[in-house]
Amino acid sequence: MNESTQWGQTSLAAHNDKRIKHNLRQRDKLLRSLRAHLQGEDFVEVDTPTLRYYEDPTDNPPFVTLGPGGWPRLHLRTCPEEYTRRCACVFDKAFEIGKSFRNELLPLGGTLRTHMPEFTMAEIYQVDLDLAEALHCIENATRAAVIGIHRSGLVPYQGVELNFNAQFKRIKVLDALAQSDDPLAQEFVAKHRAAVPVLIVGEDRILHRLLDNCVKPTLEQPTFLTHFPKSADQLPDRFIGNEIQRAELVIAGIEIGEVGALQPDGNLLHQHATTAVQDRHGHAASNHLVDVDYLDEIKAFNRPVGGGAIGIDRLLMLLCNTKDLWEVVWYPFVGKFYTRR
Fold first, then answer.
1. pLDDT tens by residue, the chain, 341 residues
2. Are 274 and 286 a contacting pair, CB within 8 Å?
3. How far apart are the first and last CA of the chain?
4. Which of 123, 139, 120 is nearest to 131 (CA)?
5. How far apart are CA 175 and CA 6, in angstroms?
6. Which residue, 69, 65, 100, 97, is CA-closest to 84?
7. Beta-carbon-side half-sphere exposure of residue 299 (alpha carbons within 13 Å)
8. What residues are paired with 101 via a beta bridge?
């Protein structure tokens, strides 16, 4: 069976190929286990809009459609965070498992496919969590999902045994970079430890390139990279001094999720959203593309929220011992049109 037939006709492929059928069965087990854990912890499952009017105030490019007459512009969500976060303010604990969409040309290197334009995320939030508590929450949820497939908590992946029983490692971003021999990483660390620099446009992209090249490939066991430098992070999370209360979960060199203690200050969030929209579309766009409903609700609640996201597809890729994301999702054929060869 050629690749076009296999991935354009996943049901037929699964019927004929025990390996594909096994992987898709594992997908069902993972989702069941994750839901059972969260419901057992009194999280309320919510189902928020996928199609939205307002733009996501991040660098993630959305898929955009047009209404009758070319307006309004409607956007497929790039993540469920903003709605799920508001739901947590109502119920104290809320989660959503659903599709997200990012309209970007994605890299393809050999059979290492870890991106899709359509993917599944679990967003999990609880009020009044600081970063340490949010890390604990996402760690427990990830472990519960894994144990639903590998009861021992030990997962063989590409010749390495991943241990989900032990506490996930935690290392600050600057400490992780300091362990690298890369001179650019050393320069970045020295700069940020010498002073508290002001926000530098583009420095967040420099940091992520350094992490992708120098740090993440060295992390095999489940590890949280924590406390991003404030001057090199565009996200408006809570901060202490020059450290953003945010983390990334990395397993086998692959980013699996994000964790954060989110900013409850409506004024700071409004400034961030307005700047993001103006940078993308110009000054006048902020009048109708900034999600004022979200900002007004967050300001009215005034409740700090912590939690994060787990990439379901990437986690399942590890649990099924494959480097190819296409082997663990239904009908990924559309992905071939959004990969850069």
1. 556 556 778 888 888 889 999 999 999 999 999 999 999 999 999 999 998 887 777 778 888 888 777 777 788 999 998 899 999 999 999 999 999 998 877 665 545 677 888 999 999 999 999 999 999 999 999 999 999 999 999 999 999 999 999 999 999 999 999 999 999 999 989 888 876 555 566 778 889 899 999 999 999 999 999 999 877 666 667 777 788 889 999 999 999 999 999 877 777 777 777 776 666 666 665 566 777 788 888 888 888 899 999 999 999 999 999 998 889 999 887 766 666 54
2. yes
3. 22
4. 139
5. 44
6. 97
7. 12
8. 118
- pTM over 0.85? The answer is yes
Cα 328 to the center of its chain, rounded Å: 18
CATH class of 3-164+257-264+303-340: alpha beta
Distance CA 183, CA 179 (A): 11
Token pair of 286 as six digits: 């902020």
Pairing of the two strands 254-262 and 305-311: antiparallel
Spacing of C-alpha 113 from chain mean position = 16
What is the SS3 assignment for 268-328?
HHHHHHHHHHHHHHCHHHHHHHCCHHHHHHHHHHCCCEEEEEEEHHHHHHHHCCCCEHHHH
- Decide if 125 contacts 88 (C-beta within 8 A): yes
Q: Smallest Cα–Cα separation from 120: which of 108, 143, 140, 102? A: 102
